[in-house]
Design a protein that fits this description.
This protein is mostly helical. The protein has one domain. Helix content is about 75%, strand content about 0%.
Length: about 140
């Protein structure tokens, strides 16, 4: 006997390609990313208003206000991709991918270090969404 009982079982196990994540996991991840970006914008806005009231460093206030606008725009873009995911549209990949590109571009232009954690998890989310779009009911 040449392992006749294990060969069909191994073939059946290797043929199944199901996503480890459920759609709700993607929704939660996008909500967390969007919420963190908007929260960062709120914190930056509060610190800018405190610095503006002191008027000690007006050039720093301008930079912080630019960061506030960027954080709100990035958060809105991620929340828009969240809504597209909930509606089952493949547009989520383009919206979230553009948020990754915008974040990287803004960081490079402003001289900030790249956010590798956001990029890593973002690319993982996009890869999983594209790979398992039938299971996630994306069209």
């Amino acid at each position: 006997m040449q392992h006749t009982t294990t060969q069909p079982r191994i073939a059946a196990i290797t043929r199944t390609k199901q996503s480890v994540f459920k759609k709700s996991t993607f929704v939660i991840a996008l909500a967390v990313f969007g919420g963190m970006s908007i929260l960062a914008g709120v914190i930056s806005f509060v610190s800018a208003s405190v610095l503006l009231s002191n008027a000690a460093m007006p050039s720093l206030v301008n930079t912080i206000l630019t960061d506030v606008a960027f954080d709100f725009i990035l958060g809105a873009l991620i929340i828009a991709s969240l809504r597209a995911l909930v509606q089952g549209k493949m547009l989520v990949v383009w919206l979230f991918g553009s948020s990754l590109l915008i974040d990287s571009f803004y960081s490079l232009v402003m001289g900030y270090p790249l956010n590798y954690i956001f990029m890593g998890f973002g690319l993982l989310l996009i890869w999983e969404m594209v790979k398992y779009r039938a299971e996630l009911e994306l069209s």
